Amino acid sequence: MTLIDGRDISQQIFAEIATQVKAMAQAGKTTPHLVAVLVGHDGASETYVAAKMRACERCGIRGTTLRFEDSVTEDQLVGAIQSLNNDPDVDGFIVQLPLPAHINEQRVIQAIDFRKDVDGFHPMNVGRMAIGLPCFVTATPQGILTLLDRYNIATDGRHCVVVGRSNIVGKPVAALLMQKSQPGNCTVTVCHSATPDLGRFTRTADILITAVGQPRLITADMVKPGAAIFDVGITRQPDPTSPGGWKLCGDVDFDNVAPLCSFITPVPGGVGPMSVASLMQNTLKAHNKQL
Ligand code: NDP
After folding, report:
1. Distance 188 CA to ligand 1 centre (A)
2. Would you give the DSSP letter of residue 168?
3. The dihedral sign for the CA sequence 166, 59, 268, 162
4. Residue 159 and which of 10, 175, 198, 263 are 20 to 30 A apart at CA?
5. Is the previous residue joined to 183 through a cis bond, with omega within 30 degrees of 0?
């Protein structure tokens, strides 16, 4: 069994991007610039944006946080997005979600120029991804593809079962892996909360991707021996032995499932760290005008 080390791969990606950005700077060219729009003072959002800014530093990418108070109106926010769309010094930007309840998230996302939408949430990017055109892919599915690639996990003709059908993980990863590309060319099955007898499907998976958020949903009897498992789920569970009194758990009953697998991602340290790495890759792509 190989433990997939998302932390290590994300560090490798940061180093690779840093080399490319340094070469741009040495050649007198402009370097990539990412802006994160942060509304309000939600603790989790602050943490995520800070992590993204730290990753920018690691990569030599210019990172700017544009802050708004909770009281910002939808029109003001859309106005700010239009300014970012038109600013030639900004290669890409993200709007950290969730937004306050009085703001329509879809209107905000759709105001972003899809060529700067490095989160890949704009319907143009989602549609282009679905039909295999150049696009920005959302962070977690892109991270899973990178891990498949870097660990040389064969996907061609294999059966991939995705558990979860969210717009940010389940649906895009299923769409990507069914495409005639590498990694890809899988036969894909998507399961969700209305799937009866989940194990009947997961037991047939060569590659199992779970994005549910239910600790230990996937037990050893639900896994085909030799499968490669990508556990996207992250749930906080009480743990009196941890200093904070809690620990992070994935969807997979790791201790019992891991010995059966060919590859498995731990939680934390598997798929999670790849999200920020994907954002950095997308920012570089935006700078290089690869769309
Ligand atoms: P959502 O809540 O949007 O989607 C969960 C999906 O799981 C839904 O499609 C739901 O089905 C399905 N589901 C719920 N219960 C079951 C069940 N018993 N059997 C089968 N399917 C079920 O979640 P997200 O996709 O946003 O996130 C999923 C998990 O991944 C969360 O724990 C989240 O924290 C984590 N996450 C981790 C990331 C990372 O970087 N590692 C990034 C993003 C998310 P239905 O559609 O029918 O409701």
Report:
1. 17
2. T
3. positive
4. 10
5. yes
* Ligand 1 centroid from CA 6, angstroms: 20
- The pLDDT of residue 60 is 98
Sign of CA dihedral 98, 101, 107, 113: negative
- Splitting the chain (291 residues) into consecutive groups of 10 residues, what average pLDDT does each group show? 98 98 97 98 96 98 98 98 98 98 98 98 97 96 98 98 98 98 98 98 99 98 98 96 94 98 98 98 96 83
Query: Residue 199: which residues within 8 A CB-CB, separation 6 or more?
Result: 221, 222
Q: Compute CA 225 distance to the chain's CA centroid, rounded to the nearest angstrom.
A: 27
Q: Delimit the domains of the chain by residue range.
A: 28-120, 139-272
Tokens of 227: 């499968």
Task: Show the ligand 1 pocket: residues with CB < 6 angstroms.
Answer: 140, 163-166, 168-170, 191-195, 198, 211-214, 217, 232-235, 271-272, 275
Could you tell me the fold of the domain covering 139-272? Answer: Rossmann fold (3.40.50)
* CB-based burial label for 227 (10 Å; 0-12, 13-18, 19+): buried
**Topology of the domain covering 28-120:** Rossmann fold (3.40.50)
| pLDDT for 106 | 97
CA of 213 to the centre of ligand 1 (A): 5
Residue closest via CA to ligand 1's atom 14 equals: 193
Residue 290, pLDDT score: 85
